[in-house]
Amino acid sequence: MSTRARVGILAIQGDVDAHARMLDRIGAEAVPVLREKDLDGLGALVLPGGESTTISKGLDRLGLYQPIRAFAEAGNAVLGTCAGAILLARTCHNHPVRTLSLIDAVAVRNAYGTQVDSFAVAADPGAVPACEGFRCVFIRAPRLREPGADAGVEVLVRVDGEPVLIRQGRIFACTFHPELTEDVRVHRLLLD
Q: 19, 51, 82, 174: which one is catalytic?
């Protein structure tokens, strides 16, 4: 019998395989999530990047908004990367989509530009020690505005002074794509 942590990856759209490889590297079992029952027995959930409108419509079509909220509210860890961070936010600006409202921040879609504006850059120094030195890959990335310090939102990583990885309890919103690097620390935070 396996003792590996089981981590779901919302499999509507996005680079599910890259997240699965990262989870495997840290000893976790990746489980695709497309139905409410797929959440049973999971220790954490990843909402991957992709196109937030497509993922939002998929969540609605599959009836997953409330089950994912209940999963998070039960104390389970959730990581949203890029489009996933948009879906975790309190609200969304710049062509709004329905969000899960699980983290007290405003997501601004495509705030770093279009696909051709994609870039990779080192994170600012001074991050939380476990997050020092990240290489951040941005692809049509959102910005996170108004992180609610009163709600316990902690900024873990910044780029050019802007928050790019935040945490509220066990919910993590990441505007970059850690699954496109060799650095497993963002995924490890999810399991710690």
A: 82
Q: pLDDT digits over 16-37, tens only?
A: 999 999 999 999 999 999 999 9
Q: Find the catalytic residue in 19, 174, 177, 187.
A: 177
Q: For the segment 57-73, what is each residue's pLDDT rounded down to a tens digit?
A: 999 999 999 999 999 99
* Buried residues in 106-123 as b, exposed as e (16+ CB within 10 A): bbbbbbbeeeeeeeeeeb
> Distance between CA atoms of 90 and 68, rounded to whole angstroms?
15
* Active-site residue, 132 included: no
Helices and strands per DSSP (H, E), number in the chain: 5, 12
In angstroms, the CA 173 to CA 92 distance is 13
**51 given a catalytic annotation:** no
Catalytic pick among 92, 131, 174, 179:
179
Cα distance between residue 155 and residue 170, in whole Å: 13
Taking the alpha carbons of 115, 184, 68, 192 in that order, is the dihedral positive or negative?
negative
Catalytic site includes residue 179: yes
**Cα end-to-end span (Å), the chain:** 22
pTM of the complete model? 0.93
- Asked whether the predicted pLDDT for residue 174 surpasses 90, the reply is yes
Domains, the chain, in order of start with CATH, read 6-191 (3.40.50.880)
